[in-house]
Amino acid sequence: MVDQSIASLAKKLRAKEISSVELTQDYLARIKQLDGQLNSFITVTDEVALAQAEAADKLIAAGSTSALAGIPIAHKDLFCTNGILTTCASKMLYNFVPPYESTVTGRMLASGAVTLGKTNMDEFAMGSSNENSHFGAVKNPWNLDKVPGGSSGGSAAAVAAGLCVAATGTDTGGSIRQPASFCGISGLKPTYGRVSRFGMIAYASSLDQAGPMARSAEDCAHILQSIAGFDANDSTCSDVATEDYTANLDSPLDGLTIGLPKEYFGDGLDNGVATVIQDAVKEFEKLGAKVKEISLPNLNLSIPSYYVIAPSEASSNLSRFDGVRYGYRCEEPKDLMDMYKRSRGEGFGKEVQKRIMVGTYALSEGYYDAYYLKAQRIRRLIKEDFVKAFEEVDVIMGPVAPTTAFGIGAKTDDPIAMYLEDIYTLSINLAGIPAMSIPAGFADGMPVGLQIMGNYFTEAKLLNVAHKFQQATDWHTKTPSLAEGA
Amino acid sequence: MNWEVVIGLEIHAQLSTKSKLFSGAATSFGAEPNTNTTLVDLGMPGALPVFNKEALRMAVMFGKAVNAEIGMTSVFARKNYFYPDLPKGYQTSQMDHPIVGKGHLDITLEDGTVKRVGITRAHLEEDAGKSLHEDFHGMTGIDLNRSSTPLLEIVSEPDMRSAKEAVAYVKMIHSIVTYLGICDGNMAEGSMRCDINISLRPKGQQEFGTRTEIKNVNSFRFIERAIYTEIERQADILEDGGKIVQETRLYDPDKDETRSMRSKEDANDYRYFPCPDLLPIELTQAYVDEIAANLPELPAQKAERFMTEYKLSEYDAGVISATRAMADYFEEVTKAAGNAKLAANWVMGELSKYLNTEGKEITESNVSAEQLGGLLVRIEDNTINGNTAKSVLQAMWEGQGSADEIIEAKGLKQVTDTGAIETMIQGVLEANAAQVEQFRASDEDKQKKMIGFFMGQVMKASQGKANPGVVTPILNKLLKG
């Protein structure tokens, strides 16, 4: 039962082959049995899940047509969930129970989804390996010595290991796509503004975007259908009409023009990964697509631009964690300054402190023009690169990351190498376009994700392209084998 | 040395929107601590600001009222600093692209000269909460009711050269924002607060001296006194060959002195950058034009109209139009009484005396405009004379009823019957035969001086009810014999 799609489970739930309560019990048991090895959950909400499952069974009995009704899912632990601990994987919020629901989790609740719990992540979504968590690193279910990627590493590992049917993630610079690639699942970062950020604990507001992580593009489509669309609580949320994301999944790809940016296939790309991507592109050609080489000349500038803009916004966004109103407060503060310094010094992990300092520096008087403004100018150039490219091609394809999942601890002492991991994903966030990662094969026994990028608000097209590939291949059906009860 | 003072002002006017600048919480004053709050005002994780368009409309109204350029694209920026009553760790304000750009307004000084003061800019920003240091036994309480309340920060050019000019400017801003109905102008509740930038330079020198900023002064009187004391302090330092330190100071009204709050070196680097949670505000010309076309009458226009329509003197028109409440009150009295000059005199004179004595605003007057109008009608139709009217007003102020009720109850109706008045005057003259004798023996100048005595005696005899207009000719005739 655990490796089935949302669509097939929805059918079984309606055929009364299984109830949501039974399904939920199965998944909860599996989490109990296997998550000791993975550490993919921070909080498991047994009681809440079973109560929601019971309610979902009633909904289904009453004729609910929602594909998500009764489907057990998990949420990245930066979505505020009413009455449920929400930590952002930080000591700073070790005790934070929001009295409100994020738009994303609220909409999934309204669709009847069952919340199994909150998944582990890099603290405040800052990281590419899920090693920066107050609750410990997450392991890759394909190889427990490897990282699952980050920052949505818990969600990716949990979906890959069959601990939930699907999960939510957020993507600021690749945090859905890179862990999806490392763990062999499908993940979609929607267009900036497609999904509301209300109730999502902010890392970098102009880049953050929530999206689905699941076993297939089709499953991603079902979740996007639930969470996408205008929200008056988020001023940056778009009022562009949503589409029916499952309606055109099977549309043929004849005449589709795929752009291959030469910058995505240069130095630094692992040979094994390159081969998988080339094979995947050949598969698309078999499906009727044409391939065209393109150039995204400012790709290299995306790393410095991103690592100025994101920390700058973060330095301000994370100012509210001051020990005054909620979350961690140091013991026995001597005075106000001492409370600020120690609460933040003890509450935030190293990577978070590093980015706050980088951002604070970049925004400082005398440096602002040289860093923040210049980074914004680069951001416009990067966006123009994509706008130009999409005048010639329908989608752009390339690798998600230069390598497969690396070893735990391998890059923790080399922040530059870690930041270079994001070279193929950052520019998408800077431009605000949608992109997916779907499983396309293996290199050295580890999954490799293919990245598919689309023009603004073309999520339906991306899902269609990904789905056709998954109809023709079976990479997305591969599952890791975990020793039970270990 | 002959010093010239240079003053520039930053006025924070709280906009009278029903809800906050970035949330739906109420802005009402005096609610229980932390009850007028939402997730946004509390700075909860994941909470996002939603801009209140009513504040935008009010800011544009102000811009049009001071002949300013309107920022067709304005951008919210974050001003980052830590303070316990600043829940997000930043204040959402405007920096490079304010909603209101360069403008100006005219102030009238006491000697009647008109001076133009430049407005540098006005921008929208959210207020912080309040830290409460009393009642918490060595700890601090935080009340976030005021958090995210909309403010319009109005920045002037350093165009003022005296405390009097500064106060005239603040009064004009006060008058404009209350006329527009975009701020209640209640300075005691903090609806309008003022930061004063002040420096001295030798008269004739072009460049400015080093300035200090006096923060958060919240009454016209304190503004004037704070400036006087700061001028004196700076002049003393400069006279002794010292240097002014650029710093922020606080005015202590109890000691009538300013004190250093923090120096420039201690000042925060606010790390302004555009707020990524809010989109730039883009205005259309039609939106701005529509607001401009519907601006209410402003103080200067009203004063002008009062002079032409009601034939008030420039001084009277200026005083009465200073606040919208006073102007509205005056117009209502005039409507009821039918005599604008009389209405102006009573509003500015007798009524203002009562208001000042009790420290009340005209909106809190015990006597409504309609009631005062009713009193003036009785002067106009000679039912009572001016002196009697004063005592009737006192009774009205004390709540004894309308003018007519009081006149009736106290029997104050003026005597205009010439026969009755003549009889009464004869009685007075007989009782004062010696003075009559003296009057008749005097020259014209002396007589003029003496007539007041007889007038007083007549009024006394009539208990104030004799119509002076009727008394005067009869008295003159009888005195001359």
From TrEMBL, chain A:
EC number annotated for this UniProt entry: 6.3.5.7
Reactions that this protein is recorded to catalyse: L-glutamyl-tRNA(Gln) + L-glutamine + ATP + H2O = L-glutaminyl-tRNA(Gln) + L-glutamate + ADP + phosphate + H(+)
Start and end residues of each Amidase domain: 22-463
Oxidoreductase keyword on record: no
TM spans (from-to): none
Superkingdom of this protein's organism: Bacteria
Coiled coil: none
Protein name (database record): Glutamyl-tRNA(Gln) amidotransferase subunit A
Organism: Marinomonas fungiae
Gene that this sequence comes from: gatA
TrEMBL record, chain B:
Gene Ontology BP annotations: glutaminyl-tRNAGln biosynthesis via transamidation; translation
InterPro entries: Asn/Gln-tRNA_amidoTrfase_suB/E, Asn/Gln-tRNA_Trfase_suB/E_cat, Asn/Gln_amidotransferase, Asn/Gln_tRNA_amidoTrase-B-like, GatB, GatB_C_1, GatB_Yqey_C_2, Gln-tRNA_amidoTrfase_suB_CS
UniProt keyword annotation of Ligase present: yes
Superkingdom field: Bacteria
Assigned EC number: 6.3.5.-
Keywords per UniProt: ATP-binding, Ligase, Nucleotide-binding, Protein biosynthesis, Transferase
Catalytic activity: L-glutamyl-tRNA(Gln) + L-glutamine + ATP + H2O = L-glutaminyl-tRNA(Gln) + L-glutamate + ADP + phosphate + H(+); L-aspartyl-tRNA(Asn) + L-glutamine + ATP + H2O = L-asparaginyl-tRNA(Asn) + L-glutamate + ADP + phosphate + 2 H(+)
PROSITE patterns assigned to the protein according to its UniProt record, in alphabetical order: GATB (PS01234)
Gene3D superfamilies recorded: 1.10.10.410, GatB domain, N-terminal subdomain (1.10.150.380)
Asn/Gln amidotransferase domain location: 328-479
Keyword rRNA-binding: no
GO terms for MF: asparaginyl-tRNA synthase (glutamine-hydrolyzing) activity; ATP binding; glutaminyl-tRNA synthase (glutamine-hydrolyzing) activity; transferase activity
Pfam families: GatB_N, GatB_Yqey
Similarity remark: Belongs to the GatB/GatE family. GatB subfamily.
Matches recorded under HAMAP family: GatB
Reported function: Allows the formation of correctly charged Asn-tRNA(Asn) or Gln-tRNA(Gln) through the transamidation of misacylated Asp-tRNA(Asn) or Glu-tRNA(Gln) in organisms which lack either or both of asparaginyl-tRNA or glutaminyl-tRNA synthetases. The reaction takes place in the presence of glutamine and ATP through an activated phospho-Asp-tRNA(Asn) or phospho-Glu-tRNA(Gln).
Assembly and oligomerization: Heterotrimer of A, B and C subunits.
Protein's name in the database: Aspartyl/glutamyl-tRNA(Asn/Gln) amidotransferase subunit B
Annotated organism of origin: Marinomonas fungiae
Taxonomic lineage: Bacteria, Pseudomonadati, Pseudomonadota, Gammaproteobacteria, Oceanospirillales
